[in-house]
Amino acid sequence: MSRLRGVGPIAWREISTVVRTRGYLLLSFGLLVVFLGVLRGGGGIRGGYVPTAVDLLLPLELLVPLVAVALGYRAFSGDNDDRSVLRTYPVSDRSLAVGVFAGRFVGLAAIVGTPLAVVGLAVSRIGGPSSSVFATHQGVDSPVLFVRFIALTICFGAAVLAMTMAASVLVRTGRATLAAALAVLVVVVAGGDLLALIGLTAGVIEDDLLGTALAVSPNAAYRGLVLESVVGVATDQGGTIDVPVAVAGLAGWTAVSLAVIAGLGRRTVSKIRSRFRIGFERLKDTVPR
Amino acid sequence: MTDDPVLRFDGVSKSFGTVRALSEVSAAIPSGSVVAVIGPNGSGKTTLIRILVGDLAATSGAVSYEGPDADRPIGYLPQDPTFRPGFTAAETLSFYSSLVDGSGPEPLLDRVGLGAAADRNVEALSGGMRQLLGIAQATVGDPPLVVLDEPASGLDPNMSANVFETAAEMAGAGTTVLLSSHDMTLVEETADSVLVLARGTVPAAGTVEELRAAFDADSLRGVLNAVVEDTEQVAVVGGDR
Predict the structure, then answer these.
(1) Is the CB of residue A4 less than 8 Å away from at least one CB of chain B?
(2) Residues of A in contact with B86 (CB under 8 A)
(3) Could you give the domains of chain B?
(4) How confident is the model at residue A132 (pLDDT cuts 50, 70, 90)?
Protein backbone atom coordinates (compact mmCIF):
# COMPACT_ATOMS: atom_id res chain seq x y z
CA MET A 1 0.00 0.00 0.00
CA SER A 2 1.38 3.36 -1.04
CA ARG A 3 2.05 5.48 2.02
CA LEU A 4 -0.19 8.29 0.85
CA ARG A 5 -2.79 6.32 -1.11
CA GLY A 6 -6.22 7.91 -0.95
CA VAL A 7 -5.02 11.42 -0.07
CA GLY A 8 -6.52 12.90 -3.26
CA PRO A 9 -10.10 11.61 -2.84
CA ILE A 10 -10.05 12.38 0.90
CA ALA A 11 -8.83 15.96 0.30
CA TRP A 12 -11.38 16.40 -2.48
CA ARG A 13 -14.20 15.25 -0.17
CA GLU A 14 -13.12 17.85 2.42
CA ILE A 15 -13.00 20.61 -0.20
CA SER A 16 -16.46 19.59 -1.43
CA THR A 17 -17.73 19.65 2.16
CA VAL A 18 -16.43 23.20 2.65
CA VAL A 19 -17.86 24.35 -0.69
CA ARG A 20 -21.28 22.85 0.13
CA THR A 21 -21.48 24.32 3.61
CA ARG A 22 -23.22 27.68 3.24
CA GLY A 23 -21.98 28.78 6.68
CA TYR A 24 -18.40 28.92 5.41
CA LEU A 25 -19.42 31.20 2.53
CA LEU A 26 -21.10 33.49 5.05
CA LEU A 27 -18.00 33.33 7.23
CA SER A 28 -15.84 34.52 4.33
CA PHE A 29 -18.28 37.33 3.56
CA GLY A 30 -18.38 38.24 7.26
CA LEU A 31 -14.59 38.50 7.28
CA LEU A 32 -14.70 40.88 4.30
CA VAL A 33 -17.22 43.08 6.12
CA VAL A 34 -15.05 43.11 9.26
CA PHE A 35 -11.90 43.91 7.23
CA LEU A 36 -13.58 46.78 5.44
CA GLY A 37 -14.98 48.07 8.74
CA VAL A 38 -11.55 47.94 10.40
CA LEU A 39 -9.92 49.65 7.41
CA ARG A 40 -12.58 52.33 7.30
CA GLY A 41 -11.85 53.12 10.95
CA GLY A 42 -8.05 52.82 10.64
CA GLY A 43 -7.73 54.52 7.27
CA GLY A 44 -5.00 52.09 6.17
CA ILE A 45 -6.59 51.34 2.84
CA ARG A 46 -5.82 54.87 1.59
CA GLY A 47 -2.25 54.62 2.85
CA GLY A 48 -1.34 51.60 0.73
CA TYR A 49 -0.65 47.90 1.15
CA VAL A 50 1.60 48.02 4.20
CA PRO A 51 -0.64 50.35 6.26
CA THR A 52 -3.55 48.06 5.34
CA ALA A 53 -1.60 45.02 6.57
CA VAL A 54 -0.76 46.87 9.81
CA ASP A 55 -4.45 47.74 10.35
CA LEU A 56 -5.53 44.13 9.75
CA LEU A 57 -2.78 42.38 11.68
CA LEU A 58 -4.33 42.50 15.15
CA PRO A 59 -7.90 41.53 14.06
CA LEU A 60 -6.43 38.65 12.04
CA GLU A 61 -4.63 37.31 15.10
CA LEU A 62 -8.08 36.63 16.54
CA LEU A 63 -10.13 35.99 13.39
CA VAL A 64 -7.82 33.47 11.71
CA PRO A 65 -7.80 31.14 14.75
CA LEU A 66 -11.60 31.49 14.90
CA VAL A 67 -11.94 30.39 11.27
CA ALA A 68 -9.44 27.56 11.84
CA VAL A 69 -11.40 26.34 14.85
CA ALA A 70 -14.69 26.55 12.91
CA LEU A 71 -13.16 24.46 10.11
CA GLY A 72 -11.22 22.00 12.20
CA TYR A 73 -13.04 21.14 15.39
CA ARG A 74 -15.54 18.76 13.82
CA ALA A 75 -13.28 17.37 11.11
CA PHE A 76 -13.10 14.02 12.92
CA SER A 77 -16.31 13.90 14.95
CA GLY A 78 -20.05 13.39 14.48
CA ASP A 79 -21.16 12.64 10.94
CA ASN A 80 -17.68 13.54 9.68
CA ASP A 81 -16.13 10.65 11.57
CA ASP A 82 -15.97 7.52 9.42
CA ARG A 83 -12.50 6.45 10.54
CA SER A 84 -13.74 3.03 11.67
CA VAL A 85 -14.99 2.40 8.12
CA LEU A 86 -11.96 3.96 6.41
CA ARG A 87 -9.68 1.59 8.34
CA THR A 88 -11.11 -1.23 6.21
CA TYR A 89 -9.92 0.54 3.04
CA PRO A 90 -6.30 0.66 1.86
CA VAL A 91 -5.90 4.10 3.44
CA SER A 92 -3.36 4.69 6.19
CA ASP A 93 -3.93 6.97 9.18
CA ARG A 94 -1.22 9.17 7.65
CA SER A 95 -3.13 9.47 4.35
CA LEU A 96 -6.30 10.30 6.25
CA ALA A 97 -4.54 12.99 8.30
CA VAL A 98 -2.84 14.54 5.29
CA GLY A 99 -5.97 14.34 3.13
CA VAL A 100 -8.34 15.86 5.67
CA PHE A 101 -5.84 18.55 6.60
CA ALA A 102 -5.06 19.36 2.95
CA GLY A 103 -8.75 19.67 2.06
CA ARG A 104 -9.63 21.81 5.06
CA PHE A 105 -6.50 23.91 4.50
CA VAL A 106 -7.64 24.70 0.97
CA GLY A 107 -10.99 25.72 2.48
CA LEU A 108 -9.28 27.94 5.04
CA ALA A 109 -7.07 29.52 2.37
CA ALA A 110 -10.18 30.34 0.32
CA ILE A 111 -12.24 31.62 3.27
CA VAL A 112 -9.47 33.90 4.58
CA GLY A 113 -7.59 34.56 1.36
CA THR A 114 -10.56 35.68 -0.76
CA PRO A 115 -11.62 38.65 1.40
CA LEU A 116 -7.96 39.63 1.84
CA ALA A 117 -7.51 39.50 -1.94
CA VAL A 118 -10.59 41.73 -2.33
CA VAL A 119 -9.04 44.16 0.16
CA GLY A 120 -5.78 44.06 -1.83
CA LEU A 121 -7.73 44.85 -4.99
CA ALA A 122 -9.43 47.75 -3.21
CA VAL A 123 -6.02 49.09 -2.14
CA SER A 124 -4.83 48.99 -5.75
CA ARG A 125 -7.87 51.06 -6.76
CA ILE A 126 -8.04 53.62 -3.97
CA GLY A 127 -4.68 53.29 -2.20
CA GLY A 128 -1.77 55.76 -2.13
CA PRO A 129 0.37 56.63 -5.17
CA SER A 130 3.01 53.98 -4.49
CA SER A 131 0.51 51.10 -4.22
CA SER A 132 0.91 50.08 -7.84
CA VAL A 133 4.69 49.79 -7.68
CA PHE A 134 5.81 46.18 -8.01
CA ALA A 135 8.97 46.21 -5.96
CA THR A 136 10.17 44.63 -2.75
CA HIS A 137 13.23 46.71 -1.94
CA GLN A 138 13.21 48.54 1.32
CA GLY A 139 11.13 51.64 1.73
CA VAL A 140 8.61 50.95 -1.04
CA ASP A 141 5.00 49.93 -0.53
CA SER A 142 4.13 47.11 -2.89
CA PRO A 143 1.39 44.57 -3.73
CA VAL A 144 4.10 41.91 -3.39
CA LEU A 145 4.31 42.77 0.30
CA PHE A 146 0.55 42.37 0.60
CA VAL A 147 0.71 38.98 -1.15
CA ARG A 148 3.39 38.01 1.38
CA PHE A 149 1.08 39.20 4.16
CA ILE A 150 -1.74 37.00 2.82
CA ALA A 151 0.63 34.01 2.52
CA LEU A 152 1.84 34.43 6.11
CA THR A 153 -1.77 34.76 7.32
CA ILE A 154 -2.69 31.49 5.58
CA CYS A 155 0.40 29.74 7.05
CA PHE A 156 -0.65 30.95 10.51
CA GLY A 157 -4.14 29.58 9.82
CA ALA A 158 -2.63 26.24 8.75
CA ALA A 159 -0.82 25.89 12.07
CA VAL A 160 -3.95 26.66 14.12
CA LEU A 161 -6.09 24.43 11.90
CA ALA A 162 -3.71 21.51 12.44
CA MET A 163 -3.66 22.16 16.20
CA THR A 164 -7.48 22.26 16.34
CA MET A 165 -7.79 19.05 14.36
CA ALA A 166 -5.21 17.36 16.59
CA ALA A 167 -7.17 18.39 19.69
CA SER A 168 -10.40 17.06 18.17
CA VAL A 169 -8.74 13.72 17.37
CA LEU A 170 -7.44 13.34 20.91
CA VAL A 171 -10.74 13.98 22.68
CA ARG A 172 -13.05 12.43 20.03
CA THR A 173 -16.47 13.09 21.65
CA GLY A 174 -18.73 15.93 20.48
CA ARG A 175 -18.88 18.37 23.38
CA ALA A 176 -15.31 17.67 24.49
CA THR A 177 -14.20 18.35 20.90
CA LEU A 178 -15.62 21.87 21.04
CA ALA A 179 -14.07 22.46 24.47
CA ALA A 180 -10.67 21.26 23.24
CA ALA A 181 -10.92 23.48 20.14
CA LEU A 182 -11.79 26.50 22.29
CA ALA A 183 -8.84 25.67 24.54
CA VAL A 184 -6.60 25.71 21.46
CA LEU A 185 -8.11 29.09 20.53
CA VAL A 186 -7.37 30.58 23.95
CA VAL A 187 -3.85 29.14 24.02
CA VAL A 188 -3.06 30.41 20.51
CA VAL A 189 -4.61 33.85 20.93
CA ALA A 190 -3.38 34.66 24.42
CA GLY A 191 -1.45 31.76 25.90
CA GLY A 192 1.89 32.16 24.14
CA ASP A 193 2.21 35.90 24.76
CA LEU A 194 1.06 35.48 28.35
CA LEU A 195 3.58 32.71 29.04
CA ALA A 196 6.41 34.77 27.55
CA LEU A 197 5.35 37.77 29.66
CA ILE A 198 5.16 35.66 32.82
CA GLY A 199 8.55 34.15 31.99
CA LEU A 200 10.02 37.61 31.53
CA THR A 201 8.62 39.05 34.78
CA ALA A 202 9.61 35.91 36.70
CA GLY A 203 13.13 36.18 35.34
CA VAL A 204 12.97 32.78 33.62
CA ILE A 205 13.38 34.43 30.21
CA GLU A 206 16.24 36.90 29.70
CA ASP A 207 15.45 40.17 27.91
CA ASP A 208 17.55 39.25 24.89
CA LEU A 209 15.78 35.88 24.55
CA LEU A 210 12.28 37.37 24.52
CA GLY A 211 12.18 37.46 20.70
CA THR A 212 13.07 33.77 20.55
CA ALA A 213 10.57 32.84 23.27
CA LEU A 214 7.79 34.73 21.52
CA ALA A 215 8.64 33.10 18.20
CA VAL A 216 7.58 29.72 19.58
CA SER A 217 4.02 30.96 20.13
CA PRO A 218 1.98 30.68 16.87
CA ASN A 219 0.34 34.09 16.97
CA ALA A 220 3.49 35.88 18.13
CA ALA A 221 5.44 34.09 15.38
CA TYR A 222 2.86 35.23 12.82
CA ARG A 223 2.91 38.81 14.13
CA GLY A 224 6.69 38.85 14.19
CA LEU A 225 7.02 37.46 10.67
CA VAL A 226 4.57 40.05 9.33
CA LEU A 227 6.46 42.84 11.11
CA GLU A 228 9.79 41.52 9.80
CA SER A 229 8.97 40.57 6.24
CA VAL A 230 6.12 42.94 5.35
CA VAL A 231 6.20 46.03 7.55
CA GLY A 232 9.94 45.90 8.25
CA VAL A 233 10.81 45.70 4.56
CA ALA A 234 8.84 48.85 3.78
CA THR A 235 9.87 50.84 6.86
CA ASP A 236 13.41 49.55 7.32
CA GLN A 237 12.54 48.54 10.88
CA GLY A 238 12.80 44.97 12.10
CA GLY A 239 14.49 42.78 14.66
CA THR A 240 11.36 42.21 16.72
CA ILE A 241 11.53 38.44 16.48
CA ASP A 242 13.90 35.57 15.76
CA VAL A 243 12.79 34.81 12.17
CA PRO A 244 14.24 31.26 11.79
CA VAL A 245 12.70 30.27 15.15
CA ALA A 246 9.36 31.81 14.13
CA VAL A 247 9.32 29.90 10.83
CA ALA A 248 10.38 26.70 12.62
CA GLY A 249 7.74 27.37 15.29
CA LEU A 250 4.85 27.63 12.84
CA ALA A 251 6.12 24.65 10.81
CA GLY A 252 6.73 22.69 14.01
CA TRP A 253 3.22 23.27 15.41
CA THR A 254 1.78 22.16 12.07
CA ALA A 255 4.00 19.06 11.79
CA VAL A 256 3.51 17.91 15.39
CA SER A 257 -0.25 18.39 15.11
CA LEU A 258 -0.33 16.40 11.85
CA ALA A 259 1.61 13.62 13.56
CA VAL A 260 -0.98 13.60 16.34
CA ILE A 261 -3.79 13.41 13.78
CA ALA A 262 -2.01 10.52 12.04
CA GLY A 263 -2.25 8.47 15.21
CA LEU A 264 1.05 9.00 16.90
CA GLY A 265 -0.46 11.21 19.58
CA ARG A 266 -3.44 8.96 20.16
CA ARG A 267 -1.17 6.02 20.87
CA THR A 268 1.00 8.14 23.16
CA VAL A 269 -2.01 9.49 25.05
CA SER A 270 -3.42 5.98 25.31
CA LYS A 271 -0.11 4.78 26.82
CA ILE A 272 -0.01 7.71 29.24
CA ARG A 273 -3.62 7.07 30.27
CA SER A 274 -2.88 3.39 30.74
CA ARG A 275 0.19 4.19 32.89
CA PHE A 276 -1.81 6.65 34.96
CA ARG A 277 -4.51 4.03 35.44
CA ILE A 278 -1.99 1.40 36.55
CA GLY A 279 -0.37 3.93 38.87
CA PHE A 280 -3.75 4.90 40.26
CA GLU A 281 -4.71 1.26 40.84
CA ARG A 282 -1.42 0.67 42.69
CA LEU A 283 -1.99 3.81 44.74
CA LYS A 284 -5.46 2.60 45.69
CA ASP A 285 -3.97 -0.71 46.83
CA THR A 286 -1.51 1.03 49.12
CA VAL A 287 -4.05 3.35 50.74
CA PRO A 288 -5.39 1.82 53.98
CA ARG A 289 -9.20 1.50 54.00
CA MET B 1 -19.27 -22.78 1.88
CA THR B 2 -15.78 -24.31 2.28
CA ASP B 3 -14.02 -25.60 5.38
CA ASP B 4 -11.09 -23.24 4.85
CA PRO B 5 -11.38 -20.45 7.36
CA VAL B 6 -11.28 -16.89 6.04
CA LEU B 7 -10.69 -15.56 9.52
CA ARG B 8 -9.36 -16.89 12.79
CA PHE B 9 -9.62 -15.53 16.34
CA ASP B 10 -6.90 -16.89 18.65
CA GLY B 11 -7.39 -16.22 22.35
CA VAL B 12 -8.63 -12.66 21.81
CA SER B 13 -9.13 -10.71 25.04
CA LYS B 14 -10.03 -7.08 25.54
CA SER B 15 -10.23 -5.06 28.73
CA PHE B 16 -11.45 -1.50 29.20
CA GLY B 17 -9.70 -0.50 32.42
CA THR B 18 -10.87 -3.04 34.98
CA VAL B 19 -13.80 -4.23 32.87
CA ARG B 20 -13.08 -7.33 30.82
CA ALA B 21 -15.17 -7.20 27.63
CA LEU B 22 -13.71 -10.27 25.91
CA SER B 23 -11.94 -13.22 27.43
CA GLU B 24 -9.86 -15.68 25.39
CA VAL B 25 -12.19 -15.79 22.38
CA SER B 26 -11.11 -18.35 19.78
CA ALA B 27 -13.03 -19.22 16.65
CA ALA B 28 -12.60 -19.90 12.93
CA ILE B 29 -14.93 -18.34 10.35
CA PRO B 30 -15.47 -20.61 7.30
CA SER B 31 -15.41 -18.87 3.92
CA GLY B 32 -18.46 -18.39 1.70
CA SER B 33 -20.95 -18.60 4.55
CA VAL B 34 -23.15 -16.40 6.72
CA VAL B 35 -21.87 -16.53 10.30
CA ALA B 36 -24.01 -14.89 12.96
CA VAL B 37 -22.67 -13.62 16.27
CA ILE B 38 -25.47 -13.57 18.83
CA GLY B 39 -25.60 -12.75 22.51
CA PRO B 40 -27.29 -10.45 24.99
CA ASN B 41 -26.48 -6.73 25.19
CA GLY B 42 -23.00 -6.20 26.61
CA SER B 43 -21.83 -9.70 25.73
CA GLY B 44 -18.94 -8.34 23.62
CA LYS B 45 -20.31 -8.66 20.06
CA THR B 46 -19.45 -5.11 18.96
CA THR B 47 -16.09 -5.22 20.75
CA LEU B 48 -15.19 -8.41 18.89
CA ILE B 49 -16.23 -6.88 15.57
CA ARG B 50 -14.35 -3.63 16.22
CA ILE B 51 -11.19 -5.62 16.98
CA LEU B 52 -11.70 -7.62 13.81
CA VAL B 53 -11.93 -4.51 11.59
CA GLY B 54 -8.96 -2.83 13.29
CA ASP B 55 -10.97 -0.14 15.08
CA LEU B 56 -9.88 -1.44 18.49
CA ALA B 57 -6.68 -3.17 19.56
CA ALA B 58 -7.01 -6.44 21.44
CA THR B 59 -5.44 -6.54 24.90
CA SER B 60 -4.08 -9.98 24.03
CA GLY B 61 -4.55 -12.64 21.38
CA ALA B 62 -4.71 -12.22 17.62
CA VAL B 63 -7.14 -12.00 14.73
CA SER B 64 -5.75 -13.31 11.47
CA TYR B 65 -7.27 -12.91 8.02
CA GLU B 66 -6.62 -16.04 5.98
CA GLY B 67 -8.75 -15.30 2.92
CA PRO B 68 -7.64 -14.49 -0.62
CA ASP B 69 -5.47 -11.44 -1.36
CA ALA B 70 -7.61 -8.39 -1.94
CA ASP B 71 -7.22 -4.63 -2.08
CA ARG B 72 -9.83 -4.43 0.66
CA PRO B 73 -10.00 -7.77 2.52
CA ILE B 74 -12.75 -6.79 4.96
CA GLY B 75 -15.86 -4.67 4.39
CA TYR B 76 -17.58 -3.19 7.42
CA LEU B 77 -20.96 -1.80 8.38
CA PRO B 78 -20.73 -0.22 11.85
CA GLN B 79 -23.62 -0.44 14.30
CA ASP B 80 -24.47 3.21 13.77
CA PRO B 81 -23.22 4.16 10.28
CA THR B 82 -22.47 7.83 9.64
CA PHE B 83 -22.27 9.50 6.27
CA ARG B 84 -20.85 12.86 5.31
CA PRO B 85 -23.78 15.33 5.15
CA GLY B 86 -24.36 17.24 1.92
CA PHE B 87 -23.48 14.34 -0.38
CA THR B 88 -25.86 12.12 -2.34
CA ALA B 89 -25.97 8.34 -1.93
CA ALA B 90 -24.19 7.93 -5.29
CA GLU B 91 -21.49 10.48 -4.39
CA THR B 92 -20.95 8.77 -1.05
CA LEU B 93 -20.33 5.40 -2.70
CA SER B 94 -18.22 7.00 -5.44
CA PHE B 95 -15.93 8.41 -2.76
CA TYR B 96 -15.44 5.01 -1.11
CA SER B 97 -14.98 3.35 -4.53
CA SER B 98 -12.30 5.88 -5.44
CA LEU B 99 -10.25 4.53 -2.53
CA VAL B 100 -10.29 1.02 -3.99
CA ASP B 101 -11.17 0.28 -7.60
CA GLY B 102 -12.89 3.46 -8.75
CA SER B 103 -15.94 1.57 -10.04
CA GLY B 104 -19.26 3.39 -10.38
CA PRO B 105 -21.86 3.40 -7.61
CA GLU B 106 -24.81 2.15 -9.69
CA PRO B 107 -24.27 -1.65 -9.33
CA LEU B 108 -23.73 -1.28 -5.58
CA LEU B 109 -26.89 0.79 -5.16
CA ASP B 110 -28.92 -1.58 -7.33
CA ARG B 111 -27.68 -4.55 -5.33
CA VAL B 112 -29.28 -3.18 -2.14
CA GLY B 113 -32.34 -1.74 -3.91
CA LEU B 114 -31.33 1.92 -3.61
CA GLY B 115 -30.96 2.62 -7.34
CA ALA B 116 -33.90 5.04 -7.31
CA ALA B 117 -32.42 7.01 -4.39
CA ALA B 118 -28.99 7.50 -5.98
CA ASP B 119 -29.35 11.28 -6.23
CA ARG B 120 -30.93 11.76 -2.82
CA ASN B 121 -28.83 13.44 -0.13
CA VAL B 122 -27.85 11.09 2.70
CA GLU B 123 -29.65 13.30 5.24
CA ALA B 124 -32.88 12.72 3.29
CA LEU B 125 -32.61 8.92 3.48
CA SER B 126 -34.76 7.02 5.98
CA GLY B 127 -33.08 4.96 8.72
CA GLY B 128 -33.59 1.78 6.69
CA MET B 129 -32.20 3.34 3.53
CA ARG B 130 -29.14 4.58 5.42
CA GLN B 131 -28.62 1.05 6.69
CA LEU B 132 -28.83 -0.26 3.12
CA LEU B 133 -26.40 2.41 1.95
CA GLY B 134 -24.10 1.24 4.75
CA ILE B 135 -24.34 -2.32 3.46
CA ALA B 136 -23.57 -1.11 -0.07
CA GLN B 137 -20.55 0.72 1.35
CA ALA B 138 -19.45 -2.48 3.11
CA THR B 139 -19.35 -4.27 -0.25
CA VAL B 140 -17.29 -1.61 -2.07
CA GLY B 141 -14.24 -3.24 -3.67
CA ASP B 142 -15.75 -6.75 -3.38
CA PRO B 143 -14.09 -7.72 -0.08
CA PRO B 144 -13.96 -11.49 0.56
CA LEU B 145 -15.29 -10.87 4.10
CA VAL B 146 -18.13 -8.49 4.93
CA VAL B 147 -18.80 -7.67 8.57
CA LEU B 148 -22.21 -6.27 9.46
CA ASP B 149 -22.74 -5.06 13.04
CA GLU B 150 -26.47 -5.33 13.76
CA PRO B 151 -27.52 -4.61 10.17
CA ALA B 152 -31.23 -4.90 11.01
CA SER B 153 -31.07 -2.46 13.91
CA GLY B 154 -33.96 0.01 13.75
CA LEU B 155 -35.45 -1.49 10.60
CA ASP B 156 -39.03 -2.65 10.03
CA PRO B 157 -39.55 -6.42 9.57
CA ASN B 158 -39.66 -6.22 5.76
CA MET B 159 -36.49 -4.16 5.57
CA SER B 160 -34.78 -6.48 8.08
CA ALA B 161 -35.68 -9.50 5.98
CA ASN B 162 -34.37 -7.64 2.91
CA VAL B 163 -31.04 -7.02 4.65
CA PHE B 164 -30.67 -10.68 5.63
CA GLU B 165 -31.63 -11.80 2.11
CA THR B 166 -28.91 -9.53 0.75
CA ALA B 167 -26.44 -11.13 3.18
CA ALA B 168 -27.48 -14.60 2.03
CA GLU B 169 -27.11 -13.57 -1.63
CA MET B 170 -23.60 -12.27 -0.94
CA ALA B 171 -22.67 -15.57 0.70
CA GLY B 172 -24.15 -17.38 -2.29
CA ALA B 173 -21.78 -15.40 -4.51
CA GLY B 174 -18.79 -16.53 -2.43
CA THR B 175 -18.46 -13.64 0.03
CA THR B 176 -18.21 -14.54 3.71
CA VAL B 177 -20.66 -12.54 5.81
CA LEU B 178 -20.14 -12.15 9.55
CA LEU B 179 -23.05 -10.37 11.19
CA SER B 180 -24.30 -9.69 14.68
CA SER B 181 -28.01 -9.55 15.41
CA HIS B 182 -30.70 -9.75 18.06
CA ASP B 183 -33.26 -11.04 15.54
CA MET B 184 -33.17 -14.77 16.29
CA THR B 185 -35.78 -15.67 13.67
CA LEU B 186 -33.81 -14.09 10.81
CA VAL B 187 -30.53 -15.53 12.11
CA GLU B 188 -32.13 -18.96 12.27
CA GLU B 189 -33.36 -18.62 8.68
CA THR B 190 -30.16 -17.17 7.21
CA ALA B 191 -27.04 -18.15 9.17
CA ASP B 192 -24.97 -21.17 8.19
CA SER B 193 -23.31 -21.13 11.58
CA VAL B 194 -23.72 -19.27 14.84
CA LEU B 195 -21.24 -18.00 17.42
CA VAL B 196 -22.85 -17.42 20.82
CA LEU B 197 -21.19 -14.78 22.99
CA ALA B 198 -21.97 -14.41 26.69
CA ARG B 199 -20.01 -12.33 29.21
CA GLY B 200 -17.13 -11.99 26.76
CA THR B 201 -16.68 -15.70 26.12
CA VAL B 202 -17.88 -18.11 23.41
CA PRO B 203 -19.69 -20.82 25.35
CA ALA B 204 -21.28 -22.32 22.22
CA ALA B 205 -20.78 -22.38 18.45
CA GLY B 206 -22.01 -24.43 15.51
CA THR B 207 -24.83 -24.69 13.03
CA VAL B 208 -28.36 -23.86 14.20
CA GLU B 209 -29.25 -27.57 14.19
CA GLU B 210 -26.16 -28.53 16.18
CA LEU B 211 -26.88 -25.88 18.79
CA ARG B 212 -30.55 -26.84 19.09
CA ALA B 213 -29.58 -30.48 19.59
CA ALA B 214 -26.80 -29.67 22.07
CA PHE B 215 -29.05 -27.52 24.26
CA ASP B 216 -32.24 -29.52 23.67
CA ALA B 217 -33.97 -26.32 22.52
CA ASP B 218 -36.66 -25.88 19.87
CA SER B 219 -35.36 -22.52 18.68
CA LEU B 220 -32.24 -20.38 18.63
CA ARG B 221 -33.83 -18.13 21.27
CA GLY B 222 -34.08 -21.21 23.50
CA VAL B 223 -30.40 -21.95 22.84
CA LEU B 224 -29.43 -18.39 23.72
CA ASN B 225 -31.49 -18.45 26.92
CA ALA B 226 -29.93 -21.75 27.98
CA VAL B 227 -26.40 -20.52 27.20
CA VAL B 228 -26.89 -17.23 29.04
CA GLU B 229 -28.38 -19.05 32.05
CA ASP B 230 -25.41 -21.45 32.15
CA THR B 231 -22.91 -18.60 31.84
CA GLU B 232 -24.58 -16.62 34.61
CA GLN B 233 -24.41 -19.69 36.88
CA VAL B 234 -20.74 -20.17 36.09
CA ALA B 235 -20.12 -16.49 36.77
CA VAL B 236 -21.90 -16.70 40.13
CA VAL B 237 -19.98 -19.83 41.13
CA GLY B 238 -16.70 -18.34 39.85
CA GLY B 239 -17.28 -14.92 41.41
CA ASP B 240 -17.31 -11.57 39.66
CA ARG B 241 -14.93 -11.29 36.73
Answers:
(1) no
(2) 16-17, 20-21
(3) 1-68+147-241 (3.40.50.300), 79-143 (no CATH)
(4) low
Q: Where exactly are the structural domains of chain A?
A: 7-286
pLDDT reading at A140 higher than 50: yes
Closest chain B C-alpha to A87 CA, distance in angstroms: 7
pLDDT, tens digit, for every residue of A29-52?
A: 999 999 999 988 877 777 888 889
Lowest mean pLDDT among A54-58, A195-199, B171-175: A195-199
Residue B53 pLDDT more than 80?
Answer: yes
ipTM of the complex: 0.87
Give the mutation candidate from A20, A77, A89 for the B interface (greatest B CB count, under 10 A): A89
SS (H, E, C) chain B: CCCCEEEEEEEEEEEECCEEEEEEEEEEEECCCEEEEECCCCCCHHHHHHHHCCCCCCCEEEEEECCCCCCCCEEEECCCCCCCCCCEHHHHHHHHHHCCCCCCCHHHHHHCCCHHHCCCEHHHCCHHHHHHHHHHHHCCCCCCEEEEECCCCCCCHHHHHHHHHHHHHHHHCCCEEEEECCCHHHHHHHCCEEEEEECCEEEEEECHHHHHHHHCCCCHHHHHHHHHHHHHHHHHHHCCC
A53 vs A182: which has the higher pLDDT: A53
Mean of all residue pLDDT scores within chain B:
89
Q: Is any Cβ of chain A less than 8 angstroms from the Cβ of B99?
A: yes
